[in-house]
Amino acid sequence: MVVVCNVFALNLLLLYGFVVSCTLSMQLKDLKNDAQSYGIRETRQAPNGVCLEKIENGSYIGMAPHPDGSNRVFLWNQQGKVWIANVPEDGSNGVLEIDESKPFLDITDHVLFGLQFGVMGMEFHPNFVSNGRFFVSYHCDKLRHSGCLGRCSCNSEIDCDPATLPIDSGIAPCQYQIVVAEFTANATATTPFLVESSKTLEVKRIFTMGLPHKGVYGGQILFGPADGFLYVMTGSGTQRGDPYNFAQNKRSLLGKILRIDVDQRNEVHDRGLWGNYSIPRDNPYSTDKQLAPEVWALGLRNPWRCSFDSERPSYFMCGDSGQDMYEEIDMITKGGNYGWPVYEGPYLFKPANAQEGSTSYSSSNSLIFPVMGYNHSETYKTIGSAFIIGGYFYRSQTDPCLYGRYLYIDLYPDGIWSGTENSRNFTSSKTPYRCARDSPIHCESIAEDVMPAIGCVLSFGEDNRKDIHMLTTTGVYRVTRPSRCNYHCPKERSVASKPGPSVSMSRKLWEREEHYTLLISSMLMLLLNFV
Questions:
Q1: Dihedrals φ, ψ of 261, to 5°?
Q2: What is the DSSP letter of 89?
Q3: What 3-state DSSP class applies to 507?
Q4: Contact residues for 389 (Cβ-Cβ < 8 A; gap 6+)
Q5: Using an 8 Å Cβ cutoff, are 204 and 263 in contact?
Q6: For residues 22 and 364, what is the distance between their CA atoms, to the nearest angstrom?
Q7: Torsions phi, psi of 193, nearest 5?
Q8: Residues 101, 105, 111, 114: is their CA dihedral positive or negative?
Q9: Is 363 helix (H, G, I), strand (E, B) or coil?
Q10: Per residue of the chain (531 residues), what is the pLDDT tens digit?
């Protein structure tokens, strides 16, 4: 009798498993069909053009979506002011709503402003909506700004003596410094995400480091979406070459991507080093004691605009500006060495002013080469190349033919580069762009039906709808529907005719597949118990 019952229960369980499997498979198939109808698939065919609309005349160096998930964004300039702006709906003929007379933050009195100096980055704590904490990276001059007293990046720990460094255009070594400071939206507000202004007085000095020359220093900051740690991008510190080999020196913090914990802030402060933070336990230092504890990746020249893919947080992409030959996009990984100054992109680099032996490297096998990029000869011929502007994986539904492509551009743009990926192998091509004829603000053109005169591109920005914005010296331009520029995208019509999904379709697919896997695993465990 017991055997019969067990056999009956086993058959019943198998029947249940079959029904569940069929149901889930049909739901998963329907969901994937829905995703395709929304245009949520990385197209292999290159788009024939990117359509832009101009929504603001002001010039800004950075944009960040408001952490409250609304249509608001933060915009900041290099001089030290930050504003909150409302982004209009696509196709509404609206412009950015911004009142520059009422900045959210004004730290101009604390900021060193110059061609390559000023406010470089702004980032919000993952729990900003409840704690109001945010962070700003900027430069200061220790002769002009109080509290600008960081340790010199040229020091005995990396076998560097500041006294041997030359005076650079009247600026002493480590007179200029890079700062990461913490601020608060409102120390007393119970809903800081509603606050329209913040206190100029910083809450905590997180990081300060003296800079050896008036060189290239990066300066962007980002919170990792998966780990919650703060990533700090630093340049190699010199305009030409890297004569002191800072980028390859594992103890130096120059030419690196740093990773620090700003929620546990006593460890480094107590050691009297760079500021108030702690070292994440899984930093590469844990297995390579030659590395400075803060270092996450090394061998970069001037990382300018990095981003995490909103759908795949492990895809951490950085534009790294070259010197003479190549502009590159790197996929950043833990402990990765990206070659500068041994290599410039895929090319062996031999700087004329390098110190003897400073560019030697035992093997190129341990170096990581760019996943995308371009030669200087491929850029705008009449102007030349300045440097690369890293961008984003396009995750908006506004232009479904761009979905899943990584967008990047040069400071002097003659097209927008877009890259596709297959098993982490990337290919990219340059795509033309133009302004919509019904753009809310008229776009000046270099010539009729040729690229608009958008000026120099300073940065990309992404809002909460995942729409991409280009921040330039002439204004803010948003990627809009291709049909507004007479570009053809066969998926646009089907996407426009459907209401957008309330959550990321691709994330739904992952969640459903994970749920499916867990159910099958549970059934297998039950079957084993019956056998």
A1: -105, 110
A2: P
A3: helix
A4: 304, 305, 319, 408, 409, 410, 411, 457, 458, 459, 460
A5: no
A6: 51
A7: -70, -15
A8: negative
A9: coil
A10: 443 344 434 343 333 444 334 443 444 444 444 444 444 444 456 688 999 999 999 999 999 999 999 999 999 999 999 999 999 998 899 999 999 999 999 999 999 998 889 999 999 999 999 899 999 999 999 999 988 989 999 999 999 999 988 888 889 999 999 999 999 986 555 555 566 666 666 788 999 999 998 877 889 999 999 999 999 999 998 778 888 899 999 999 999 999 999 998 665 544 556 889 999 999 999 999 999 999 999 999 999 999 999 999 999 999 999 998 999 999 999 999 999 999 999 999 965 455 544 444 545 558 999 999 999 888 766 666 678 999 999 999 999 999 999 999 999 888 999 999 988 899 999 999 999 999 999 997 655 445 568 999 999 999 999 999 999 999 999 999 999 999 999 888 755 544 444 434 444 444 444 444 444 444 434 333 444
Q: Distance (Å, rounded) from C-alpha 310 to C-alpha 474?
A: 28
Kind of pairing, strands 133-141 and 119-124? antiparallel
- Residue given tokens 């909150």 in the structure block: 84
Residues 6+ apart with CB under 8 A from 252: 153, 158, 160, 246, 292
